Task: structure prediction
Amino acid sequence: MWSRLFLLATLCFPTLAFAGVKESVAALAPDGLVYVVDAQGVELVAQNADSPFVPASVTKLVTAWLALETLGADYRFETRFYLDDKRTLYIRGGGDPFLVSEELAQLAKELIAATGAAPFAGIVLDGSYFPADLRVPGVEDTAESYDAPSSALAVNFNTIHAMQRGATVVSAEAQTPITPLAISQFRKRGPKERGRISLAKDPTLSLQYAGELIAAFIAKAGGSVKGQIVTGSVPAALTPIYVHRQSRPLSGVLHELLVGSNNYIANQTFLEIGAKRFGPPVSLEKSLKVANEKLAAQDLGQAIHLEEGSGISRGNRFTARGLAKVLALLEPHANLLKHGKGAAYKTGTLDGVRTLAGYTETSSHGKVRFVISLTGNDSALRFRLLQAIQAAL
Result:
């Protein structure tokens, strides 16, 4: 008799557990989307799970998976340098999203080692890898850093970080020299005290700042630029004298992307997916074609709809089951996500949208995948829902 009672209790326990977590979730957010599935695909919670939702920055999980599938974890972005017989330096951008000041310092040293320290007659910047009319849905013409435009050759995420000290504009970063364009843009559009601003949607402006900052680092490395910095094309007869390969492999770039939730890095990476497959120049159409092929191959063509790779567009639409399947595909790289609160996760935030997705360990069901989407601006509620899932399962 006791054995029969024990068997009955054992069989009923999962149902009781499921009921408990469902009640907790419903009590906290009756209108929220909450979906939890275990490693075997058993659905543990499926509240409003059939409703498509705006993913916001959890879109970056899909971008990360697509990039790993298409480019590979060890892929490195490249920037090419050419030199003519007059010592004019040509720079062809390759869409590297991580040409930050620390990277430029190393780049300049290696460039001088390859070309010698004699002065350069000038710099010609070739941004043809990205078409001038490229526009990413959701990116607006603002001075906010999250609206930084995509670019073939951009430095410091296409932003300027400066501050005013008395009557003087100086760099707000010890590692970044101030340049004439940075000063003029800060005075024109920046805050009075301190702040990071996006460069304007004029590709020539972005290129000019990249050229000025590279020239400043060339000077710090012992070289110099005597002539002007202009835009143009690399002559067909020239071959690269130096190719800078990003010090971070793609896996490292994606870690920074997922932890820092940088829209600029996301779309630079997303655009590289299409260019890798179909060749330059980059285009959203090329990358969306690759993305849709990859998603369809996983039976996700109807579940994941992308307009761009960062989540800044409200035209992106996911289903919870679709995103949970992407999480299963991305799980070997879960270490790239932000860790904390007992989970590896990615948040998403737009006005009126709060999302959360990732992995968490449970006592009864091991590692589970979860997707949470809420309307409204209560950022803490999604984490209270995560805690309820962790406690009940």
Summary: The first strand starts at residue 33 and ends at 38. Residues 78-247 form a domain with the D-tyrosyl-trna(Tyr) Deacylase; Chain: A; fold (CATH 3.50.80.20). Residues 1-16 have pLDDT under 50 and may be disordered.
